[in-house]
Amino acid sequence: MMTSREQALAIDSDDELAHLRNQFDLPEGLIYLDGNSLGALPRATATRLQEVVQREWGQGLIGSWNDAEWATLPARIGNKIAALVGANPGELVVADSTSVNVYKALSAALELALAAQPGRRRILSERHNFPTDLYIAESLARQHGCELVLADEPGQIPALLNEGDVAVMMLTQVNYRTGRMHDMAALNRQAHQAGTLALWDLAHSAGAVPVDLNGDDADFAVGCGYKYLNGGPGAPAFIWAHARHADHCRQPLSGWFGHAAPFDFTPSYAPAPGSSRFLCGTPAVLAMSALECGVDTVLAAGGMERLRRKSLALTRLFIELVDAHCDGHGLLLVTPREDAQRGSQVCLALADGAYAVMQALIARGVVGDFRAPDILRFGFTPLYTRYADVWDAVQVLTQVLGTGCWREARYHDKGAVT
Amino acid sequence: MMTSREQALAIDSDDELAHLRNQFDLPEGLIYLDGNSLGALPRATATRLQEVVQREWGQGLIGSWNDAEWATLPARIGNKIAALVGANPGELVVADSTSVNVYKALSAALELALAAQPGRRRILSERHNFPTDLYIAESLARQHGCELVLADEPGQIPALLNEGDVAVMMLTQVNYRTGRMHDMAALNRQAHQAGTLALWDLAHSAGAVPVDLNGDDADFAVGCGYKYLNGGPGAPAFIWAHARHADHCRQPLSGWFGHAAPFDFTPSYAPAPGSSRFLCGTPAVLAMSALECGVDTVLAAGGMERLRRKSLALTRLFIELVDAHCDGHGLLLVTPREDAQRGSQVCLALADGAYAVMQALIARGVVGDFRAPDILRFGFTPLYTRYADVWDAVQVLTQVLGTGCWREARYHDKGAVT
Question: Are B256 and B125 in contact (CB under 8 A)?
């Protein structure tokens, strides 16, 4: 059990991943525990963007689609992300937003499932899945005459699958509000036994925990570029289809960049081979160039297993220190204590005043975020979070809770919460 | 009739818009006639992006969603574009790619049209419309059990409307291959008389020609950020719905940023009021910040009518000079000579060797582009194109055609053409 800041500093000085923090430009004195919402700025990004803007766009102009290889950005960055999530080269592409990709992947999965088993009419997800996934599923359920069934708790999923009428199971591997992580391999097995296709949202997984899409036999996946991949605010997202589906599925956003021969300008659509068919419009070159710098910071760790070890050590330490120092203030740990069920974040519920406590923490330089109605959310990005940061964060949290000074913060509340 | 370069220089020195070129960073000595494909780099963009990356993202981190007003970028830049296309503030938003927005707008229009007149089963467009629009229409036609009907020539459109079974007419105002411009007001009138909704793609219109969406009574519109709006490669696009539809239509890409209360994290979708419902995922902050700089360069002209006058003068001059200097080489003008039917580009067909001629032009510093199978395409962005550029471009074209030296260029051809 850690009892002093010196102990934390000692672990930091032995940390073989400590140097990875130098890849980032972090504000002096800030403890940033919100990389699960917006990853920090890699040092390489500003320079790279200047190069893309001034040399590739400004000087190269239209020729840069070939000369600077803009046209292959979705596949090139896709291959880098593929290495982080257990996908093979060529199987994963970068495109659009996570929400748009959920639409493509869920639509593709539904069409395959309904063609194979026309009687099925259910999409299965969780009530506490990130809302955008549910909104998109609602739209596609309506379009296909399906029903969106929501499990109230993860434990209900196997029974719902066993009812035998679920076409597609769509889950987010690590829950945004609780940090709870599903067992992807087990759920894929259960889904397939029930004749159901499995679609995974890796928004809080990619770059945060080891993912093995092929090894765990998933069917489709999407993920986010601006959280643990450090791609910048609103960075492009990614999409993957298992090789057994990629050449056979159809996605409705059939734009020219997903065409087999976009520059033939033929009036009829013919999908590109494999996952390239998931591209739609012209690639967002500036945003993708920034994303590539972010993905490179994760690749620099030399493997997700190393990051996972540190991530678990950080979240475990945070939980232990909160247990030891914050007793009696009504905090409730909503993130599982079992390592295998925990992503790279820890969430604490506080029935009264969670929003104000988070504002007080932020005012004192500890940045997490608040999720309505009562969740304090802390993300631990192993690339740039130090053990001493965890110690300090809990000290500040203890202080805020103990003095009650956070009650004043209520008067400084802003309307919007992100 | 212009007979010397001095005359062109004299017009440039009298040009009240000449100073607008200083807003751009253009390569020395290059005549860039491809702003209809990728707009040139505004000088302001690099600095603005550095500010967004280093200060807003790097220092402000997650707080910048409020503090740097990232969350309102789609509406703020949307309002600026609205002023260029005859839309009211609040009616137009920036989001996603043009292809994705075609999907949203066409789907919304189709649902409205089919609800009002369930017997209709046709989407009307043109065979020579930009392919991505047709690919998306094909997908939605399939989804709704409709037929995509393609006019071979603009003149066929009224008769096809009069058949009375067209739900939605989807046209690009200025054709990408010919530069021909439709009469939007007249076609909207004809469409509405036939009970048809009108959806316009403004990819080659916004920032290029005056557009009056409300005045001309359009129903839906989308457009591109990286052509005449100078937003950078793959810049975000825009989408507009007439106020009579915006609160009543549904679009299928129902992501969280188009929700009435995204930060309430409710599991059910409820669309935001008006055109905000056309947003889907998290806004692409870096890309939108670059787009804003581009849009500002157009607003600096002080009105589309002033830009239009210069644009027409430039294209007219180009046509006159090609007539005078390039006779006998088999060039065919495919762009209308009538001002009212011409966008801001001029296209010449050349049955044999068009691709090689364009390569030879580019090698000599005159950048247009090639569109299969036989089109030489020249865009004239009035913000940065000078009359002397037009003179020089035709001189180089004459030289390339006359010496036949372009035949050598065939051996340097690259595979991909953008």
Answer: no
Give yes or no for a cis peptide into A373 (omega within 30° of 0): yes
Compare CB distances from A62 to B65, B286, B369 and report the shortest one's residue. B369
Q: Do A290 and B286 touch (CB under 8 A)?
A: yes
Catalytic residue among A34, A96, A133, A201: A201
To the query of whether residue A103 is one of the catalytic residues in this protein, the response is no
Q: Taking the CB of residue A336, how many other CB atoms lie within 10 A of it?
A: 16
Q: Please report the pLDDT score of residue A407 as a whole number.
A: 57
Cβ contacts (< 8 Å) between B253 and chain A: which residues? 99-100, 103, 136, 139
For B250-374, where are the alpha helices, taking DSSP H only?
285-299, 304-325, 354-363
Burial B152-190, CB ≥16 within 10 A → b, else e:
eebeebeebbeeebbbbbbbbbbbbbbbbbbebeebbeb
Does A310 qualify as catalytic in the annotation? no
Chain A residues touching residue B34 (CB < 8 angstroms): 61-62
Query: B177: which chain A residues are within 8 Å (Cβ-Cβ)?
Result: 265
- Two structure tokens written together for B105: 């707008």
Backbone angles phi, psi at B314, to 5 degrees: -70, -50
Question: pLDDT tens, B128-160?
Answer: 999 999 999 999 999 999 999 999 999 999 999
Q: Are A202 and A173 in contact (CB under 8 A)?
A: yes
Chain B residues within an 8 Å CB radius of A49: 49-50, 53, 286
What is the value of ipTM here, to two decimals?
0.96
Render B360-415 in DSSP notation, one character per residue: HHHHTTEE-EEETTTEEEEE--TTT--HHHHHHHHHHHHHHHHH-THHHHGGG--S
Residue spans of beta strands (DSSP E) within A141-246:
147-151, 166-172, 197-201, 220-223, 237-241
Which residue of the set B226, B278, B370, B380 is catalytic? B226
Chain B residue with the nearest C-alpha to that of A252: B139
Mind listing the domains of chain B with CATH numbers? 5-32+303-412 (3.90.1150.10), 49-299 (3.40.640.10)
What pLDDT is attached to residue A406?
A: 56
Comparing CA positions, the residue from B130, B196, B121 lying closest to residue B158 is B196
Interface mutation target, options B65, B135, B371, chain A, most CBs of A under 10 Å: B135
**Residue A269 amino acid letter:** Y
Whole-number Å distance between alpha carbons of A246 and A16 = 39
pTM here is 0.96
